[in-house]
Design brief:
It is built from 16 helices and 14 strands. It is α+β, with helices and mostly antiparallel strands. The radius of gyration is 31 Å and the shape is elongated.
């Protein structure tokens, strides 16, 4: 029985030795292998060279590879999804609700609302000249009360919802007008408007007026035989009551107003100093350029043309386009630039690792129990992982 353990790059050797010891001694496996998650992200790519950018939970790793082998120095940016969620906790707790202990809830808020802005200055100008609730990026996140709402959801602000309903109503009226038959005299339209007003008045008060201005009492709703007109009035009245009840319920729910936080928090990836971090900390585009420049010059052009994003943080909207804009300013003009996002960024490395390992014997990527027990002497134990690296020539490690 064999197991493969996927580790992040730059893992300490002492920790790797302890992990191997637990799987051999406590769990009783016969073969144990250690592989690097980022290296598997380059499998089945269009080119042999690939620069894998693993935007994970705790940090972002930039790993240049050639034929699935780590090519040069690995670069690490100490920013990940955990830091973005931490900023959400700070801003929301300072401005609205105390959510410092609701990290799982703010993770859902981050996934549902965060996006990377392609025009940061324009978004900030919009926020400066419009009040809260009337900006096009303002949203309300309905917090769960675990009685009627088990999972939070996003909705428009009241002003944006009213504007959206008005636009939808105009489109519907335009569509109905185009589908209606032409009436040069305009009498048909007058009759339709009159009928709609009469129905609305009857639904509200049960009283309508004829052309002479006399009031005609509508028939009682409780009659045994209900006509089509009475049924229409009753349904309109019930629908209005139901809508009013829904509006009252929506107004009573606790909501989290989200505005500029949607794009200013992910902006930390490109400008870490905005979050109060060190001004010398490199941004993600600078980390990528540094990792590729550390590789031999003959590989640099191919690495720029094959940048692959994996990890949960790369699921943010517009992250690929924004990264392309920022990188284009830093790399020489003679190099082409191509960025690809994995179809399943979270599970991409695991899917490729399971496919690769099924077609290769254990001896190529794992350490057997016999070899491990031969290294149990105190002087040999620290060399367990070193022997595994020498055995695999650094491949996928």
């Amino acid at each position: 029985m064999a197991v493969v353990i996927m580790l992040c790059p730059l893992s300490p050797r002492s920790i790797m030795d302890q992990v191997i010891h637990v799987w051999f001694k406590d769990f009783g496996f016969s073969h144990v292998g250690l592989v690097t998650t980022s290296a598997f992200g380059s499998i089945h790519t269009a080119t042999e060279c690939c620069c894998v950018v693993d935007m994970g939970w705790s940090a972002t790793q930039v790993v240049p590879t050639y034929k699935y082998k780590i090519l040069g120095p690995i670069r690490r940016q100490p920013l990940g999804g955990r830091h973005l969620v931490g900023l959400w906790k700070y801003y929301c707790s300072y401005r609205q609700w105390n959510l410092m202990d609701a990290e799982f809830l703010l993770e859902e808020v981050h996934r549902a609302l965060s996006y990377v802005s392609l025009d940061l200055r324009g978004e900030l100008d919009n926020a400066q000249h419009n009040i809260l609730g009337k900006r096009h990026f303002d949203r309300e996140y309905v917090l769960p009360d675990y009685q009627t709402v088990l999972k939070g959801f996003v909705r428009l602000t009241p002003w944006l919802k009213k504007l959206d309903d008005k636009k939808l109503r105009q489109e519907r009226e335009l569509c109905n007008f185009e589908q209606a038959s032409p009436d040069p005299t305009g009498k048909g339209r007058f009759q339709r408007d009159k009928t709609e007003k009469t129905i609305e008045k009857n639904a509200r008060g049960g009283i309508s007026k004829d052309e002479s201005g006399n009031e005609d009492e509508s028939e009682d709703f409780d009659s045994d035989e209900e006509t089509d007109n009475q049924q229409r009035k009753r349904l309109l009245y019930l629908k209005e009551e139901e809508d009013q009840r829904k509006r009252e319920i929506e107004a009573e729910r606790q909501t989290l107003m989200v505005s500029v936080e949607r794009f200013t928090i992910p902006e930390v990836i490109f400008y870490p100093s905005d979050a109060g971090l060190e001004t010398k900390m490199a941004s993600l585009p600078q980390v990528i350029v540094s990792a590729i420049k550390a590789c031999p010059s003959i590989y640099q052009s191919a690495l720029y043309e094959s940048i692959r994003l994996i990890g949960g943080a790369c699921q943010l909207s517009n992250v690929k386009d924004r990264l392309c804009i920022e990188l284009r300013r830093l790399i020489p003009s003679q190099y082409d630039l191509k960025i690809e996002v994995a179809s399943d960024p979270v599970n991409d490395a695991w899917i490729k690792a399971s496919s690769w390992l099924q077609h290769n014997p254990f001896s190529q990527w794992s350490l057997s129990r016999e070899n491990y027990e031969a290294c149990l002497r105190p002087r040999e134990r620290p060399r367990v992982c070193q022997k595994m690296l020498e055995k695999q020539h650094g491949r996928l490690i």
